[in-house]
C-alpha cells in the first residue's frame, strides 16, 4: 500500500460558499488535509510526496479553455479596475449562448454553482490534487505493480463533481475521471465505485456513453440535495454506455445497515463487470456527525467499507474526497486504513 499527498494542496482557502439561498461558512478548508495527514503518521505509514506528472492527462478529460480559466482566471479578475472581491465567484451560470467575453462571462460559463470560488492560490492546489492522483495511476501503470496493489490519495480540493468544463460542489478537476482515462493506456476496463455522500455527476457525465468505464455510486437521494439534477436510479448511461452507469440513491436518514446494503449491491455490479482496476471515491461525509451527512455511518463502518473493497482483490486507487467533520477525519481515516491493512 502506498499513500500520496502534496503540501501545496493546502494553499486553496475558499472565503465564500453560497448554497441554498444563503452565504455559508466554507467547509472545504486546508485544515481537512492537515487532519487527514495525522492518520498515517499515527499508524507509522509513509506518505510519499507526489511528483509532477504534467498537464496532458488533465487535458485528456477537461476542455482546454476551461483549464485556462482555472489557471489564469484569477489574474484577469484582479486586473479589473473595480473592486471585485478576493476570489472569482458569480451567481450567474450561463454555459450556453455565452461568448465568454470578459472574466464575468467566463465565470458564468465555467462555475456551475456558488461552492467553487477561485482565489490567488487555488490553481496551485487544484493542479497538485490532480498530480497526487496521477502519481497513484502511474504507479499502477508500472509493469512491476503488484496484482492487488492499493494506492491511497489524500487529495483536496476533491473532484467528482467537476464536469468537463465546469466547477462545482467544491470540485474543479475531476481526479477520478483523469486517472481512469490515464489508466486506459494499459488497462481495458476501469470501475469507479463512489461512496461519497453526494452523487458524482461529473464522473457520470464524462463516461455516460462509454462501456470501458463502469461508474456506480452510493449517495444520498439528490431530491433537494446536491447535486439535485443527477444521481437518480433511472440514469443508466447512453448508447454503448447504457447499463454501465448504476446509481443507488439512499433515502435521507438511511442507517449504517442500509448504507452497506447499497454498498454490497454496488460491489456486486463491480464484480460482474470484472474490471482490471478499481477507483474508489471515498467520502467521509457519510459519517453520522458530518454536516453534509444524510446517513449514519460510524467510525467502525469505514473499516468495514475498506475490508469489503479489499476483498475484491483488484488493484485499487482510493481518492479521499468529501468529509467535513474535521475533528473526526483523522480517526475515520485510521479506521479505513486499518481495514486495508488487516488480514
Report on the structure:
The protein has one domain: Histone deacetylase domain (Arginase, Chain A), CATH 3.40.800. The chain has 343 residues and is of the alpha/beta class. It has helices spanning 31-43, 56-59, 64-78, 103-110, 122-141, 175-183, 201-207, 256-273, 299-310, 326-341, and strands spanning 2-5, 18-19, 22-23, 47-49, 150-154, 190-194, 213-220, 245-250, 254-255, 277-282, 295-296, 316-320.
List descriptors.
single chain; 343 residues; alpha/beta; Arginase, Chain A; eight-stranded parallel sheet; two-stranded antiparallel ribbon; 10 helices; 36% helix; 15% strand; globular
Give the count of helical stretches: 10
- The strand order across the widest sheet is 4-1-5-12-10-6-7-8
Query: Would you give the CATH topology?
Result: Arginase, Chain A
- Indicate the overall shape: globular
Main beta sheet: strand number and arrangement?
8 strands, parallel
Secondary-structure class: alpha/beta
How many E strands?
12
The domain tally reads 1
Amino acid at each position: 500500500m502506498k499513500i500520496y499527498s502534496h503540501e501545496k494542496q493546502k494553499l486553496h482557502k475558499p472565503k465564500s460558499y453560497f448554497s441554498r439561498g444563503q452565504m455559508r461558512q466554507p467547509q472545504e478548508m486546508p485544515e481537512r488535509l492537515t487532519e487527514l495527514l495525522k492518520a498515517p503518521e499515527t499508524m507509522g505509514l509513509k506518505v510519499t510526496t507526489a511528483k509532477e506528472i504534467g498537464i496532458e492527462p488533465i487535458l485528456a478529460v477537461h476542455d482546454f479553455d476551461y483549464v485556462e480559466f482555472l489557471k489564469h482566471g484569477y489574474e484577469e479578475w484582479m486586473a479589473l479596475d473595480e473592486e471585485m472581491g478576493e476570489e472569482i465567484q458569480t451567481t450567474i451560470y450561463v454555459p450556453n449562448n455565452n461568448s465568454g467575453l470578459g472574466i464575468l462571462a467566463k465565470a458564468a460559463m465555467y462555475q456551475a454553482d456558488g461552492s467553487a470560488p477561485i482565489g490567488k492560490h487555488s490553481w496551485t492546489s487544484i493542479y497538485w490534487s490532480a498530480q497526487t492522483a496521477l502519481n497513484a495511476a502511474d504507479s499502477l501503470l508500472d509493469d512491476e505493480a503488484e496484482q492487488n496493489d492499493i494506492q491511497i490519495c489524500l487529495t483536496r480540493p476533491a473532484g467528482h463533481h467537476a464536469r468537463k468544463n465546469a466547477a462545482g460542489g467544491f470540485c474543479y478537476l475531476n481526479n477520478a475521471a483523469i486517472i481512469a482515462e490515464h489508466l486506459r493506456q494499459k488497462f481495458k476496463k476501469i470501475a469507479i465505485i463512489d461512496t461519497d455522500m453526494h452523487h458524482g455527476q461529473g464522473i457520470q457525465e464524462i463516461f455516460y456513453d462509454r462501456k470501458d468505464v463502469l461508474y456506480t455510486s452510493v449517495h444520498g437521494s439528490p431530491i433537494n440535495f446536491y447535486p439535485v439534477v443527477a444521481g437518480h436510479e433511472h440514469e443508466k448511461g447512453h448508447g454503448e454506455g447504457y447499463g454501465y452507469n448504476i446509481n443507488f440513491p439512499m433515502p435521507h436518514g438511511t442507517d449504517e445497515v442500509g448504507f452497506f446494503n447499497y454498498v454490497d449491491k454496488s460491489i456486486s455490479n463491480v464484480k460482474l463487470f470484472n474490471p482490471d482496476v478499481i477507483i474508489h471515491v471515498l467520502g467521509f461525509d457519510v459519517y453520522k456527525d458530518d454536516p453534509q451527512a444524510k446517513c449514519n455511518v460510524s467510525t467502525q463502518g469505514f473499516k468495514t467499507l475498506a475490508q469489503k473493497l479489499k476483498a475484491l482483490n483488484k488493484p485499487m486507487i482510493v481518492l479521499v474526497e468529501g468529509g467535513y467533520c474535521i475533528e473526526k477525519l483523522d480517526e475515520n481515516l485510521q479506521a479505513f486504513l486499518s481495514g486495508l491493512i488487516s488480514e
